[in-house]
Amino acid sequence: xxxxxxxxxxxxxxxxxxxxxxxxxxxxFVVNEVIGSGRSAGHPYGEITNWVLDGEIPHxxxxxxxKPLDAELESPLVFSxxxxxxxxxxxxxxxxxxxxxxNASLNRMVEDVPLLLPEANADHIRLIDVQRRNRGxxxxxxxxxxxxxAMPVVMALAPxxxxxxxxxxxxxxxxxxxxxxxxxxSLDILDNMIPYIGGEEEKLETEPLKMxxxxxxxxxxxxxxxxxxxxNRAPVIDGHLINISVDLATQPSHEAIIxxxxxxxxxxxxxxxxxxxxxxxxYLRHADRPQTRRDRMNGNGMSTSVGRLRLCPLLGYKFVxxxxxxIRGAAGCSILNAELLAVEGYISAFDPQRLVTEKLAL
Length: 362
What we know:
Number of helices: 13
Largest sheet: 6 strands, mixed
Helix content: 25-40%
Distance between the termini: 12 Å
Strand order of the largest sheet: 9-6-10-13-12-11
Mean pLDDT: 95
CATH superfamily of the largest domain: NAD(P)-binding Rossmann-like Domain
């Protein structure tokens, strides 16, 4: 059994490149099609792409011809790094039978679209069954992952749901790569922080409520909590750092909170998936950690680093959370979502366990 062929929408952009990089040695998936803008279409990927990541374009991808957005695709699984204005194409592809794992914001809050973060809400995958019934689809689906700033918030709060998350206030310091390439102009961001990122605060105040909610009677009941956010662009390349204050109903001890983080793994089979970090949440005990440059690559960029738990005179507790925004907060989470879909049987005619068994027999 061969690896599953996948397509990458928006493959020439910064997040699309991260998909290409992360999928290079993937044990289950292989990049088969790359889709770009009209300007890029018809050209070899290696000639038209301004590669902005470390290292070089994978050799296996260089000679793939970039396809236009409206091209018919043969790959069953599609990863989307499209901008919001082009993301309507995702529903068209799902209707045609493709599984679409998307980073775009357009469909995140649609009622029957899972906003999936496997360690926190793997059971939300069952919303795909509702989506297919609602839309008359047999094999297609759209599955979203969250805004890259919501990611560390949800990862840090998921282990604390047992204590009752009543209110939460967040202040972000977000990397410039979150704005895409070339990002923020150097004369704006050097020696500066910008206290406004369009649309970010609204996403940060709503998306975690859906992700931390419960799948009940074929829909998601949002977490009964209140969230407020202030979002800032900071002069770092990668890594979103969030200062979080939270009101917990049962007022646990600091030791109980740290223990919840240290022991958080998410439900089976999430921890067994190829892209899953050994520790989804890492509590760092040094007083000055996490730090963006030093800790964003923990767990190969897939772990959320948490630290500085202390008393908050307003809400009870406060701490810092950090995630790599283009790995855990974007491409890496989409790939992890697709791995969960595969093992749960949502990608027809592909059985990853059979692929593993055949490799062991060689």
